[in-house]
């Protein structure tokens, strides 16, 4: 195994898009940021210097960080942020992950512009579980705002309403030819006729699930979240914020130009969303004419077509048969809700519904981010930073997905609560969406782990009958799972990675409103079952 070194200079850099210019927070002046490449089992060392006035941390989304939560990155969970002018070196030990994962800032809204691919190729002595592709095509889907992105959370917090929607989706930083002033910069990739390419796709968008497709080319999904999967042939994918996918395409059409396009899959009726379409172009190398023919456009499902989304996700399967019939010893049932809270600023009404402000919760607890690192507080036995009373079940049973739920369900409690798991406990967790204020999709990401998605459905989880239909043979292994609107998902994992691990909705507004919780997985008895020592250069929690 090798060690690969990268430098991340966090700085503000000028960009011009959608006919106007501004400075955005970048890594090394790039948007999207630099691609990290390694082989399975390698170690990646990233030296970060923060040359902005903003706090920053980085997360390696999809990397387990076995026994090493110190370098996981979410601010105030595993570390305090890297302050202006300060530096920190992340050490990322790759273990079982292979395929496409990604990195992003994990501090406020910085991840909107500070993100990039993390490509893990097979170990040099091994190979892909499919014929070796001729080349890879990196595709990172992002968003562009005309406003200053770093101000969006502050403004949303002040008003209590929704954060500002983006003005465009982007593919590799470019909105594509359908947007004003964007045609020349549309991302293009040239393919050789007859060759097979590996698309490495990441959704780095903040607030919406997406459909993505390529004109006239069937896609074959071979991996997701840095884990290989059974092959799925499909015309489109549905990808949630936080997910990554490995997809093969073969240039087997007549030479020409073919559009890749992405746009929202949005099921939250009433809520606004960016309903624009980002495009990029795949071009065959054999087109020579100075005026290439009009490009072909892919068929994408309509933005509100939930069946199209679930038709795709229900096909996901593990590559191999796995053993998940483990004796579950910890059964958890978490509700995911969007709620309302009173405005602290009573002199003017809040911009949320009923003059209130939005909140969001898991089991009716809205997560309150502390001002020092939870992991450090735990490791140094500092009291008063968190409590260990995160509830195993919602405070009361109700018809989670019913219409017109009683208003008394709207308020939440607030706290920095963690759930303690014994080392090696076998966990089954039901993630139940609710319709408390409004229902929505919730792409839930668990740090430090991958998990098996053994079941899912619409409506309320039925503990009697739904488990009978679990897939305990080849359930997909994922690190970010889309909990469908007004539905539920059942996941299983073995708590064999000690540390403080954040779990949250990867829709940024839900996360900002409090849809987060933390698992504290205890050390095992043997030294190799325990958290490693903290780095010496952990950023200070004080100015
Ligand atoms: Cu993609 Cu908590 O992260
Ligand atoms: Cu959500």
TrEMBL record:
Its cofactor is Cu cation. Its main location: secreted. Residues 13-123, 137-285, 390-523 form the Plastocyanin-like domain. This is Laccase. It is found in: Secreted, Extracellular space, Apoplast. Its EC number is 1.10.3.2. Lignin degradation and detoxification of lignin-derived products. The lineage of its organism: Eukaryota, Viridiplantae, Streptophyta, Embryophyta, Tracheophyta. It catalyses: 4 hydroquinone + O2 = 4 benzosemiquinone + 2 H2O. Keywords: Apoplast, Copper, Glycoprotein, Lignin degradation, Metal-binding, Oxidoreductase, Repeat, Secreted, Signal. Binds 4 Cu cations per monomer. Pfam families: Cu-oxidase (PF00394), Cu-oxidase_2 (PF07731), Cu-oxidase_3 (PF07732).
């Amino acid at each position: 195994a090798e060690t690969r070194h990268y430098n991340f200079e966090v700085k503000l850099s000028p960009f011009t898009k959608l006919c106007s210019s501004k400075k955005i927070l970048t890594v090394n002046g790039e948007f999207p940021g630099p691609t990290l490449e390694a082989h399975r089992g390698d170690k990646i060392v990233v030296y970060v210097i923060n040359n902005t006035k903003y706090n920053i941390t980085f997360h390696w989304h999809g990397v387990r960080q076995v026994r090493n939560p110190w370098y996981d990155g979410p601010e105030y969970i595993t570390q305090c942020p890297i302050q202006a002018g300060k530096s920190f070196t992340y050490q990322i030990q790759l273990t079982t992950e292979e395929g496409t994962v990604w990195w992003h800032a994990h501090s406020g809204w910085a991840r909107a512009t500070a993100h990039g691919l993390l490509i893990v190729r097979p170990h040099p002595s091994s190979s892909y579980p499919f014929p070796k592709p001729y080349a890879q095509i990196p595709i990172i889907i992002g968003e562009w705002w005309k406003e200053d992105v770093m101000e969006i959370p502050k403004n949303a917090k002040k008003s209590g309403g929704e954060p500002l929607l983006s003005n465009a989706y982007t593919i590799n930083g470019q909105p594509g030819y359908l947007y004003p002033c964007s045609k020349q910069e549309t991302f293009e990739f040239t393919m050789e006729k007859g060759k097979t390419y590996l698309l490495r796709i990441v959704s780095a968008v903040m607030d919406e699930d997406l459909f993505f497709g390529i004109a006239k080319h069937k896609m074959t999904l071979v991996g997701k979240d840095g884990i290989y999967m059974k092959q799925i042939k499909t015309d489109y994918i549905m990808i949630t914020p936080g997910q990554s996918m490995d997809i093969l395409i073969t240039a087997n059409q007549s030479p020409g130009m073919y559009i890749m396009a992405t746009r929202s899959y949005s099921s939250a009726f009433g809520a606004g969303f960016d309903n624009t379409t980002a495009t990029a172009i795949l071009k065959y190398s054999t087109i020579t004419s100075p005026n290439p023919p009009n490009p072909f456009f892919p068929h994408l499902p309509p933005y509100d077509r939930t069946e199209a989304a679930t038709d795709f996700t229900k096909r996901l399967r593990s590559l191999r048969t796995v053993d998940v019939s483990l004796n579950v010893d910890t059964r958890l049932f978490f509700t995911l809700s969007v709620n309302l809270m009173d405005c602290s600023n009573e002199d003017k009404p809040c911009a949320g519904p009923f003059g209130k402000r939005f909140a969001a919760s898991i089991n009716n607890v809205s997560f309150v981010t502390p001002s020092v690192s939870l992991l450090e507080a735990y490791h140094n036995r500092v009291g008063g930073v968190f409590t260990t009373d995160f509830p195993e079940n919602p405070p009361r049973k109700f018809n989670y997905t019913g219409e017109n739920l009683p208003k008394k369900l709207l308020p939440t409690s607030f706290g920095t609560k963690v759930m303690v798991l014994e080392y090696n406990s076998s966990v089954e967790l039901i993630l139940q969406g609710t319709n408390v204020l409004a229902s929505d999709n919730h792409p839930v990401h668990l740090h430090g782990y991958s998990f098996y998605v053994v079941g899912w459905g619409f409506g309320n989880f039925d503990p009697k009958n739904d488990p009978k239909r679990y897939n305990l043979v080849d359930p997909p292994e994922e690190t970010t799972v889309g909990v469908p609107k007004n539905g539920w998902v059942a996941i299983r994992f073995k708590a064999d990675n000690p540390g403080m691990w954040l779990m949250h909705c990867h829709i940024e507004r839900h996360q900002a409103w409090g849809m987060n919780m933390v698992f504290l997985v205890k050390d095992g008895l043997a030294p190799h079952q325990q958290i490693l020592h903290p780095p010496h250069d952990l950023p200070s929690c004080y100015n």
